[in-house]
Amino acid sequence: MATICPPEAQKKRLLRLTIAHYRNENCSEEEMYRWGTEEHAVHVAKIHAKHGIEGYAVHWSPSSFRGAAKALNANLGDRWVIRDHDMHVEFWFRDMATMAEVAADPDFQALQAAEGPYASKIHIEASLGWVEQYVADGKVVNVTAQGKPDFLGWDRMSTAP
To answer: Which family does it belong to (predicted)?
Structure first.
């Protein structure tokens, strides 16, 4: 039987879903960027806000940046796996019901349906976890006066959302 997520975990824990996309093979990096910023993100942001998504961001990783990451990795001993996707989106929210509302929104579904010429529909990567932020605006945050993290313990933080 699944453990029910405690209310204090939903309030304190900020969930983060990332979805990594590769370009459609017939789309240039520049075309994907133009579509992603001008046609997709500006419209989908309003849908996310309407349903209570606390944060939404797009991370771009063009081949020039992946090359720079590979060079840095080589200088550090080649221990990293450099992800080769073109972009990923990040969503920050408190509970899975919020993401379900977004996914069910007809306007969101229409925007997803229009991705075909730009984003590949195969080889999509996703991860779900929570965020523990320790520096914000150049200042240490979420650390108590006693020097301990101000987050719930593993038993509550790791309960499935």
So the answer is: Belongs to the tpcK family.
